[in-house]
Amino acid sequence: MIPVTAAFTRFCEVSQVPPNGKKAAKINGVWVLVCHSKDRYFAVSNICSHQVKPLINGRVRNCAITCPVHGAKFNLETGEALNLPATKPIDTYELRIVDDWIEVKV
User: Fold this and answer.
1) Of 77, 75, 27, 11, whose CA–CA distance to 49 is shortest?
2) Which residues form the Rieske domain (predicted)?
3) Does residue 88 surpass a pLDDT of 90?
4) Which of 4, 18, 30, 44 pairs with 59 at a CA distance of 20 to 30 A?
C-alpha cells in the first residue's frame, strides 16, 4: 500500500499577510495561522499549547508570536515555546508560495 501524503492547500494571497501580520483559517479541520516576519512566511497552529487559546490576536515580532492571553511566546520556525507559562511547542506546517498565493500542507 502506498502511503497517502498531505497535499498543499491554497491559503490566501501573499498580499493578505503584510509584514508583521497574520491570518488564520481552517484547513482540513485544523486551525492554521500564517505569519509574516523578517521577510519570511511561517505556518503554525493557531492554538496556544498552554491553554488551547487562539493565537490570532497575538503580536508577531522577530520570527515569534506571543499569545495574547498569558504571554507565552513561540518560535514561528520551530514552534518551540520560548517562555513560560507554555512548555510545549505548537505545530508548524510546510508552506510555499505559488503564483502569489500562500499554500500550506497540513
Assistant:
1) 75
2) 9-104
3) yes
4) 30
The CATH fold of domain 13-105: Rieske Iron-sulfur Protein (2.102.10)
In angstroms, the first-to-last Cα distance of the chain is 21
pLDDT digits (tens, 9 = 90+) for 4-36: 456 999 999 999 999 999 999 999 999 999 999
The answer to whether 100 touches 64, Cβ cutoff 8 Å, is no
Task: Give domain limits for the chain.
Answer: 13-105
Q: What is the pTM of this model?
A: 0.91
pLDDT at 42 over 50: yes
